[in-house]
Amino acid sequence: MIKKCLFPVAGYGTRFLPATKAMPKEILPVLDKPLVQYGVEEAVEAGLTDIGFVTGRGKRAIEDHFDVSYELEHQIEGTGKEKMLEGIRRLINQCTFSYTRQINMRGLGDAILTGRTIIGDEPFGVVLADDLCFGDSEGVLAQMVRLYRQFRCSIVAIQEVPHANVSSYGIVEGEAISDRLVRVTNMVEKPKPEDAPSNLAIIGRYILTPDIFSIIESTPPGKNGEVQITDALLRQAQDGCVIAYRFRGRRFDCGNVDGYVEATNYCYENIYRKRSC
Ligand code: UTP
């Protein structure tokens, strides 16, 4: 039912300079796999195989990653190393990839609006690939797609964060529907801890209904002069319904060095060592 997933990857990744000076943040590897590949795998697990990227200048490596590399593949053909490409080859066969460019990096809301040409008039997933998520028994996006079937409105993934850290996130407030579900009544982008309505932070996974595009169009720039998806979602929540979902699993903010190192250690212990056994 939901087939499309948008990856806004146009940001500059300034928190990871100088690594991101000439290389997209989303290509940073956690162990032997780029962040963006984890994100696409999560989308495919949720049944979303039409992958759309909102790219920007200097992001060509992402397009190349989801394409064949004739010379390299010819070079390792018939050797033991070929199996290292199995995962990415499978993804390339399962998915279609579309690209559009954000010209001025005016914020996540603007990046999502730029993706309208790929998405059209249907509900869609959004993955911010620098948030690396591992679901408990199924992927976070798959959990959210199931919720969408139930509620038929936009769903945002949230997690509790320490109060001192709320100013790094969009923060939600609302009426509890159950242990894990909140009907959103208020949202604030990057509030000061003393102004935050809660410590429930939006992370980089969304299911959005397509009316969000016209809402973003009429949403003025907000925090830091950027068009904020949080501001558009608040208007959607006020006019209809937005559900915040405390997902089952773990999330690492790989947009900064601490989270990236944590993710690497987690994957080394839980994926790499088990694979090598
Ligand atoms: P972030 O703020 O986490 O990414 O935006 P950033 O701007 O690349 O990183 P820093 O803060 O400078 O280190 C969240 C997501 O939204 C995308 C980013 O690529 C990232 O995936 N984004 C952000 C866009 O695509 N366009 C924008 O104008 C802003």
Task: Lay out the secondary structure.
Blueprint lengths: L3 E5 L20 E2 L2 E2 H11 L4 E6 L4 H6 L4 H7 L9 H9 L1 E6 L6 H7 L1 H4 L4 E4 L3 E5 L4 H12 L2 E7 L9 E7 L4 E9 L10 E9 L3 H6 L11 H11 L2 E5 L2 E5 L3 H20 L1
Parallel strand pairs: 1-4, 1-6, 4-5, 8-12
Antiparallel strand pairs: 2-3, 6-11, 7-13, 8-11, 9-10, 9-11, 10-12
The chain binds uridine 5'-triphosphate.
Short structural summary:
The chain is an alpha/beta fold and 277 residues long.
Describe this structure in words.
The protein is α/β, with parallel strands linked by helices and 277 residues long. It has one domain: Spore Coat Polysaccharide Biosynthesis Protein SpsA, Chain A. Helix content is 34%, strand content 26%. The chain contains ten helices and 13 strands. The protein has a five-stranded mixed β-barrel with strand order 8-11-9-10-12. Strand 2 (29-30) and strand 3 (33-34) form a beta hairpin.
Question: Which short descriptors sum up this protein?
Answer:
alpha/beta; two-stranded antiparallel ribbon; 277 residues; Spore Coat Polysaccharide Biosynthesis Protein SpsA, Chain A; 5-stranded mixed beta barrel; binds uridine 5'-triphosphate; 13 strands; 26% strand
